[in-house]
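Reopening this ticket.

The earlier resolution said the output was attached, but the attachment link was broken on my side. Pasting everything inline this time so it's all in one place.
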Amino acid sequence: MKKLSKKIIGDGLSKHEVSAKKPKEPTNVIMLVMDGASSSATTLARWYKGAPLVMDEIASGGVKTFSSESAITDSAPGGTAMATGNKSNSGYVGVLPSVVNSPGAEKVKSRDQFKPVANVLEGAELSGRSTGIVATSEIQHATPAAFSSHHVNRNNFSVIGEQQVYQDMEVVLGGGKKALLPESEKGTRKDGENLMKVLENKNYDVVETKQELMESKSGKIWGAFSDTALAYDMDRSKTNPEQPSLSQMTQKSINTLSKDKDGFFLFVEGSKPDWAAHANDPIGMISDVLAFDEAVGKALDFAKKDGNTMVIALTDHGNSGLSIGNQNTSRGYDSIPVSAYIDPLKKSKMTLEGAMGELKDDLSNLKQAAKLYGLDNLSADETAKLEAVKTKAEAGSVLVKMLANRANLGFTTGGHTGEDVFLYSYGPKKPYGMIDNTEIAYSMAKGMGFNLDKLTEELFTEAKGAFRKIGASVKIDRTDSNNPVLTVKRGRTEAKIAIDKNEMMIGSKKYELEGITVESDGKVYVPKHAVELLRKNS
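Inline output:
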C-alpha cells in the first residue's frame, strides 16, 4: 500500500466544492453500480420479488448521466464521471474527452485532451486505505476499468488488465482471466506476459473458485473466476456452481478490507443487468438486479454496524427503454393486475443466456430451450414462429419478443437510454438530491479527505516537460512494440520507466512509484514521484 503526503492529499475539495470538516475517524466508502438498469428494471424486479428492495430504504435522489458528447452515455464515460469527477467520451476510461458538445459539460483545453485523471480508488490507496474492485463481468470491463485504469479504448483489456495488476489493490474479484494470460497459454495477451504469475509474485492469493475464495485468509486476494464474464445469478447454480455470487464477493471483500485500521474503498459492479437489457431479456435483468440488491444489503449491514461508512448505489445509465405495459395494455391498463406482468416471468427457469447455452447448434431442442425460458403451452402462432427460426441468434430474438408479449412488457431499443436515474446513499457525507454523475466522485473524495484535482497533478504529469525541467532527455523505446518503455537520461544516469506499470529502474535499482505510468495520444504521463527520484539519484 502506498501513502501520499498530506499536502498532496489536500482537504478533499475539488474546484467545484466548499470546505467541510473531516470525520474524526477514517471514512470507508462502498460504491456499488448496477450497470444499465433503468428505473423500470428495479420496479419490475421489486414486483417479481414480491417485497421491497434493500435499495428502497436508502433512496436519496437522482443522477444526471449524460456524457461530454451525448445525452446517452456509454459505460466508459459514465464510469469515468463517477470515478474521476470528469465527463468524457464514448470508449474513454479514466481520461479527459476530446469532444465536448453537451450543454453543461465542462470544456477541456486542447492540450489536456486524452489526459489521464486521478480516480477515487487511487486517492483512497494513496491516503493509506485498502482498496478493491468487484464485478460480474470481466474485471477489465468499462466500469471497473474506469475506477482502476486510464485508456482511450475500453476494449483494450490487455492494457487495462496490466494497469490494474500494478495498481496495488488489495482485493480484485470477477472474471477476465484471459486478459491476464499470454496467447501461448490460451489467453489474449500479445505481450507475452503472464500476469497471473505476476500476481503470485506480488503475494496475492490467486483464487479461481467460490470455495477457494471463502477459505482464503489472505489480506491480498485476486479472484479470476472465469475466462470472460461470470454467469447470471439465476443460471449460476446450473451452469457454473463453482463461481461465487455477487453478494458473496462483496461480503468477502468487506471482511478482508475492513481489517485495515486506516479504512477502505470498495467498488462493486453488478455488470449484467446491462447485458440483459441490450438483449431485451427481462429475466436476466430481474436476476441480476436482485443479485445486486442483495450485495447492497451486505454493504448496508456493514455500514450500519460500523457507523462511519458511506454507501452509494446507483446505475450508470438506462438501457432498453423497458416499459411495464405495451400495446397489449393500451386499453384497460388501469385494471390489469400485477399478476398479468409477473406470472409469465415466474415460469422462467433460466435467463436468455442460460437457455441459449442449452440450445443445440442444430436447433433440435428449441422447444425445450423455450420452456427453460418460461415459454410452455405454445400457441399455434408461437409454434409457427419457432419453427421458422434458422439460427441461434434468431432464436434468441424470437424468444425475448414472445416472453415480452406474454408479460405485457415493451422495449424501445437494444441500446442505452438517456434518462436520469435513482440515487441510493447512506452514511456520513453521503450525496443526496438531484446531482450530476461527476458529483459522485467528489462526494467520495471529500468523504475520504483528498482532492482529486491535486491528485491528478501529482500522479499524471507530462513526462517530456517534467523531466526536461531537471535537465533530462526522454524517448520511448518501442523495440518491443507490445512492451514500450520510457527511457530517461540525466547526465550519466539512465532510468527506464515501464508504461502501464508502477515501476522505475534507475541503473540497476528498482523503485515502486506512487502511481502507474500511462501513455495517451502519444504523450506519456508519470507520477511526479518519478521525476523526484531521478533528480535525487543522478
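Reporter confirms the inline version is readable. Residues 98 and 113 are 5 Å apart (CA to CA). The two ends are 27 Å apart (CA to CA).
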